[in-house]
Amino acid sequence: MIKFLDLQKINSQYKDELKQVASEIIDSGWYLLGNQVSTFESSLSNYIGSKHAIACANGLDALRLIFRAYIEMGIMQEGDEVIVPANTYIASILAITDNRLKPVLIEPNEASFNLDINKVEEAITKKTKAILVVHLYGQACYNGELRDIANRHNLKIVEDNAQAIGAKVSNLKTGNLGDASGFSFYPGKNLGALGDSGAITTNDNELARIARAIANYGSEVKYQNEFSGLNSRMDEIQAGFLSVKLKYIDKENLIRREIARYYRENINNEKIILPQVVSGDEDSHVWHLFVVRSKERERFQKYLLDNGVQTLVHYPIPPHKQKCYKEMNDHTYILTEKIHNEVISLPISPVMTKDEIVRVVDLINQFS
Ligand SMILES: *Cc1c(COP(=O)(O)O)cnc(C)c1O
Fold it and tell me: Is the entire prediction scored with pTM above 0.85?
């Protein structure tokens, strides 16, 4: 069986270093808000090029904390609108609605699966305060036009960088393109912890201070609470693991890129539509997922499984059709719904062997 993602194999590459750091942390007797977290935060801000990195409990919280901090800063208030791609993972939308802000869904560009920047301006109203761009599947979604729109209308650009750590747009990394960015280190992400964790990056001093406080009970000084905060801290042990794995992220992203290139050059089947790097710059995509489209997805998925290849669907139901968003259930987003009906993700990970990659391609080329 070719697994969709073999986490055991990914982490066993670094087993000795991970065990070493775990053992140091156990012996240290210090498990939260310590050196491991602050060291990881410096390494992450250094890697991204941002002034600040704030560790937190998971990727959803990273995004929630950003919007919550903007509310505390008086930049946003209940009922304000946030523009967001309609085909994103539910967490992007939850971060908005959890703060009683209103998501305004925009159709994606079919070639990139990312927010169609040409459709942003027509969706802006007096209540619009931010654009939440999602670098979906690992492909950066940003250009000068988006920045101009945000500047013209005084909007914040918030990045959901859960899937694209390491991607670049003209030498700036995702996570350093907008005003603030949320990261997820869920185990299956390109930089995965061995449990939950997340982070925020920003160049905004005030946002950084407030988000950090909110993540720790709204407190900067122990037992003094400036905000009614959350408990959203990163564990020392996850920070230790992440510092080990951050050293290898560029190497791993490069392997993903090579597998993606092999797939794109060698899969040749008229029933299968391949993903594109829309900017033409290979550095803009880190291939968190390799998502193809097929009009016969269910049959294609079963064919691959019967032949020993696991695939997944990201994602089967769009946010506006979820039960939790009843108020949006009758909205129609034609491209989003088409994408959700056709997408299927092939295995791609830094531990796939050449034989496995070739086998996936051969099987797909024989699918009829
Ligand atoms: C994974 C993910 C998140 C949420 O991250 P968690 O760490 O699971 O909370 C948010 N947005 C996107 C696009 C994701 O893929």
Answer: yes
